[in-house]
Amino acid sequence: MLKILSTENIRKADKYTIENEPIANIDLMERAAGKLLDWITKHISSKNKIRIICGTGNNGGDGLALARLLSEKGYCIQVDLAKYSDKLSDNNKINLKKLETIKRININTIEKNNNISEIDADEIIIDALFGSGLSRPVETFPSQIIEKINNSHAMVISIDVPSGLFCDTSNKSKQGSIVRADYTLTFQNPKLAFLFAENDRYVGQWEILDINLHPDFLKNIASDDIFIDINDIRHILKQRSKFSHKGTFGHALLISGSYGKMGAAVLASQACLRSGAGLLTTHIPKAGYQILQSTIPEAMISIDENEEYFTKINNIGEYNAIGIGPGIGQNKKTQNALKLLIQNSLSPLLFDADAINILGENKTWLSFVPKESIFTPHPKEFERITKKSKNDFERHSLQREFSIKYGVYVILKGAHTAISCPNGKIYFNTTGNPGMATAGSGDVLTGILLGLMAQNYHPRDVTIVGAFLHGLAGDLAIENQSMESMIAGDIIKDIGKAYIHISQKNFPLQ
DSSP for 133-165? Predict the structure, then answer.
């Protein structure tokens, strides 16, 4: 798992590497510039004109070093050095001195009353103005440079972070300019700011460049925010024994559907069975009997005494896992039935959709939810069980606090689904695509999670594997769909292929 480090810990990682590898500070910068060079030579032709806009700090030093290396590869380079400070960092000075010996590179110094020249639409702009250590909004003279970059039609690549973007706090309530990058090439670890929707227009497509910071530091440094990768999932997945039978993989109960919303029950049931549950009973109102019986013959059906919505469930002790919410509605009798389920359950429950909305209307019930239960809200549903947040960073803190307070797991759905745990750790998922923003996709996730719960995975592993598997199935489905045409059923069809992709390292993504 890849730790998400604060700006302060990134500095410490650099310092530790310099002291213990050992490596000179300037050589670590050269290593970073070499990784940038590798990416650019792979993605950008030497026929393109590249303009590198550098600041006076170490981020600018990275840009100056990159300019020299690109020139040696035959690229046409212009360097704009924005002297917003009279003091250059030591590494910046060293790289500037090296660059000044290369006659074919044009170095243009930009000062307060010397505006940056016009940017052509066919130029490639590399942003090296400010790095991750920025502590205040960018205003005045540097702000004018950023606005000129943003108003151009040129492709923009930011080094480490887009200039002006804070890594650990929100820019939302602060005045100041921020580069809107098409690509951000960040070093070693992802930045927390990259994972939130409010920063998407600044960060663009981002990639991590491994600059080989000291592994001992990265191993031992504590972090409550973690980035999931496929190897983490491989280590969690259980292997099936030759002598397994359906009872080995548990009996799941799904409480789902209401009049007009039986599709949610169908999708969640199909996904539960595809994710590996041995047995599934779906509890539905009478109106849904023929729909479920004809569409999912593999599922058993429990029929509510009510025609149109959920009002009662008996004998919950016979099930290994219970999930409730997709399509159940919020009728008063349904609310009372949910309350009784919470009171009578001795094991963790899975709450989705209307079950979460009901709890949002009855927040006092949250204290009685079984420990290690799982919630799967989208941002608006999460707001209903907590409160409205000013920005994504504040919501991130609220999510952590909610999990700690109630001892539960929260899967906050989004582009980088965030999974918070009772111990305060938050895991960010790395699979999925915008095509999954479609009706029923959340019902599919609920089914996958319930199937994993039935198989007796630990609740933490249920959330991490479930979110990853769901997103990966969507990524595989997109190979045969457009993002616009994808529907939830496409995700279900590729759950099996997603399992294969995880377990077999060389399985082709097709």
Answer: T--S---HHHHHHHHHHHHS-SEEEEESS-TT-
Tokens of 369: 């939810």
Q: Are 306 and 285 in contact (CB under 8 A)?
A: yes
> Parallel, antiparallel, or unpaired: how do β-strands 2-3 and 225-227 relate?
antiparallel
Question: How far is it, in rounded angstroms, from Cα 325 to Cα 353?
Answer: 5
Residues counted in the chain: 510
Of 414, 409, 336, the closest CA to residue 371 belongs to: 409
Residues 169, 192: contact at Cβ < 8 Å? no
Which residue positions in the chain have pLDDT lower than 50? 507-510
Contacts for 508 with CB less than 8 Å, ≥ 6 apart = none
pTM summary value: 0.95
Give the tens place of pLDDT for each residue, 386-434: 999 999 999 999 999 999 999 999 999 999 999 999 999 999 999 999 9
Among the listed residues 331, 347, 420, the one whose alpha carbon sits nearest the alpha carbon of residue 382: 420
Contact 461, 232 (CB under 8 A): no
Q: Within a 13 Å sphere around the CA of 98, how many CA atoms are in the beta-carbon half?
A: 19
Query: What distances in angstroms separate CA 50 from CA 45, 121, 143, 321, 383, one per listed residue?
Result: 10, 11, 21, 57, 45
Residues 302, 281 contacting (CB under 8 angstroms) = yes
Compute the distance between CA of residue 190 and CA of residue 385 in angstroms, rounded to an integer. Answer: 29
123, 147, 274, 323, 381 from 499: Cα distances, Å: 43, 46, 10, 22, 29
